[in-house]
Design a protein that fits this description.
about 5% strand; mainly alpha; about 240 residues; single chain
Amino acid sequence: MLRPVAHPARTPRTASYVPLIQREIERMIGTGELTGGTRINESTLALRLGISRGPVREACRALEQIGLLRSELNRGFFVREVSTKEALDLYDIRAGLFGTAGRLAAAIITTVQLRGLEELIAQMDAAIEAPDIATFYTLNNAFHGEVVVASDNDKLIELYPLLEAELHLFRRRGLVLPGSMRTSNDEHKAIFDALRQSDGTGAARLLERHILAGKARFLRTLEDDSATEARPGPLDPRHSRSKDR
């Protein structure tokens, strides 16, 4: 008599999709496909990914918990908007965190980890030449994440994703300025050299400066936006008055 074959218990397929959907939404926010205040269209996203709406909703709930999305009753999930004050505060916290990561990592980073950072830098150079800001942004995030992992500090590694999630909401702005990607990757190369030489003090200083330079680039985008808004357009009464004088 044949007996039915027993299959091992498996994780429901929908549950396995949630982390993938979460990363996709984070990517879309980071690359500017989804901007602050935008509603997440669960049906469209599910259709595009070829899945049901259930795991999309679960991914949105997870992103709400880490501060990337917000929900409204009977309206769904929206990309959270971050104030300038919140953004600047996050940069300052992140500068201290990365300085610590660099100091710790320099003493213990492995050859394999160094090769990984070097490869990311090379890929970012290629993205600059393309130019492909979306790819550069993703690789840039990976570089920072690998430095944190190399620190081998469990609490720092635990805190890092929470800070990075909120930064997706605005950090890409600083990379759209002319020359910003090249400048950023030059800073990565200097950080890499310090880590390779086991220079903890230098790595900490360079990483902190790197984050604060990103903060400065972000502030420049705010100034540029203000200048654009203040500049009279061809149909602006201020424009016609200045011509008549």
